[in-house]
Prior knowledge:
There is one protein chain. The protein is of the alpha/beta class and about 190 residues long. It has helices spanning about 1-20, 35, 40-55, and strands at about 70, 75-80, 95, 100-105, 110, 115, 135, 140, 145-150, 155, 160, 165, 175-180, 185. The protein is built from 3 helices and 14 strands. Strands 1-3-6-9-12 form a 5-stranded parallel beta sheet, with no helix packed on it. It has a 5-stranded mixed beta sheet with strand order 5-8-11-13-14, with no helix packed on it. The protein has a 4-stranded parallel beta sheet with strand order 2-4-7-10, with no helix packed on it. A hairpin with a 4-residue loop joins β13 (about 175-180) and β14. It is globular. The chain starts with a helix and ends with a strand.
Amino acid sequence: xxxxxxxxxxxxxxxxxxxxxxxxxxxxYLQGRHFDVSYGxxxxxxxxxxxxxxxRLARPLxxxxxxxxxxxxxxxxxxxxxxxxxxxxPGIYLQNFKGTIHLGRGTYIxxxxxxxxxxxxxxxxxxxxxxxxxxIGERCWIGMNAVILPGVVLGERTVVxxxxxxxxxxxxxxxxxxxxxxKILKEI
Length: 188
């Protein structure tokens, strides 16, 4: 009985919640599996709006994100709304002010992952080199504490081992890579 009542009320609550949350986030990010199939996205959105938009504990983003998720330029990040879960993990660091980061649909990013598009210049540390886009294919998994450096292209279903530093591309995909610098550990 309670379950039926919740389903009926959810029919009304979801559109009202989306309307209120669209004051803080772009509507295109308030859809997908975390909003339409389950309701976890609403929890993330309310938490993010409270922490980042109202209390200003961190810089707000145009989509719901965890408190310690940092994206230097939200306009240089391409991802599908179904993958908004990637921005809820602690310590996600996406430095993309000089290049674009493309996250393939269905990709998972673990906590404390860094993806950068430009390094500092060795002869002038206050300056950055030219940026290079980073492209991560569909259905990839980036393990905890991994770092992906500028210009890297990962093909679909690439698994990056925890703690790996990815300096080169693996466009063929379907492999497990790990180490410093990352190399193929196993074909999938």
